UniProtKB/TrEMBL annotation:
GO terms for cellular component: cytoplasm. The lineage of its organism: Bacteria, Pseudomonadati, Campylobacterota, Epsilonproteobacteria, Campylobacterales. This is Pyrroline-5-carboxylate reductase. Residues 150-252 form the Pyrroline-5-carboxylate reductase dimerisation domain. It comes from Sulfurimonas marina. InterPro entries: 6-PGluconate_DH-like_C_sf, NAD(P)-bd_dom_sf, P5C_Rdtase_cat_N, P5CR_dimer, Pyrroline-COOH_reductase.
Amino acid sequence: MKTITFIGNGNMALSIAQGLKNTYKIEVVGRDLTKLEKFEKALGVPTEKALMDDFNIEGKQIILCVKPYNIEEVSKKFIGKAEVIYSVLAGSTVEKLRNNFNTGAVVRTMPNLAASVHHSMTTMTGDASYKDQATEIFSAIGPTVWLGSEKELDIATGLAGSGPAYLALISEALTDGAVKQGLKRDDAMEIMRGLFGGFGKLIQDIHPALLKDGVMSPGGTTAAGYGALEKGNVRNACMDAIESAYKRATELS
Ligand SMILES: NC(=O)C1=CN([C@@H]2O[C@H](COP(=O)(O)OP(=O)(O)OC[C@H]3O[C@@H](n4cnc5c(N)ncnc54)[C@H](O)[C@@H]3O)[C@@H](O)[C@H]2O)C=CC1
Ligand SMILES: O=C(O)[C@@H]1CCC=N1
């Protein structure tokens, strides 16, 4: 079994490791032994654990899972040259990663929160000679798309990386709307979850505009609700959300 080494032991590292634990030997490197033990317990398989200081990354395949503002501090702690670093960091460029880490190759990836349930939508870009291996690794947590540039990855960060938070806002707001009209909270939550479950399947094969046309009867309930969403400028707000997230990703570089 090949080994994958995680630098960082937070939410993203654990979610990705959950997807890989049956096909790779997992090694995790962090700052605090107690937290590394917690990580191993949560993962549920024997895990190599090491502290960061003077950790030798020579020849290793690494998944970097710290925060973007930790790069400079974290990268100084290692010795040796990694084979490849797969970074999940929002915004941090290939150039910045190369300037800080001694590594043969760099691939930037952008998973999302659904990694924890093996349904991440992960985008990737970087050293093209690692495209197949990156696809194999990250397919363990859901579908992947290889993109041709870092600009595209930063845009995709706004779409799929941050997307769960935007959809959470919509789902909470729709549920609140139903409660406001008199539905019980528990019923509204159950109904909203059913809505998203079915919609998640439909949207795989049907264009959004056709899906909308299929629901909207002339003079019916959907047309009334849809008109209210357009009046609230929801479409424009969604486009602005992607623009703001993309801009922020470039600032994190
Ligand atoms: N949460 C999400 O939905 C997504 C997060 N990401 C990226 O994943 C990365 C990690 O995010 P999470 O796992 O959510 O965060 P987290 O807070 O759960 O984990 C961060 C890890 O970095 C370590 N760390 C923090 N400060 C450190 C320091 N000064 N020196 C050494 N280690 C330090 C922490 O101990 C922890 O292991 C971020 O760069 C983020 O951009 C990417 C896609 C989605
Ligand atoms: O908000 C963030 O910066 C990270 C990247 C994508 C999701 N969470």
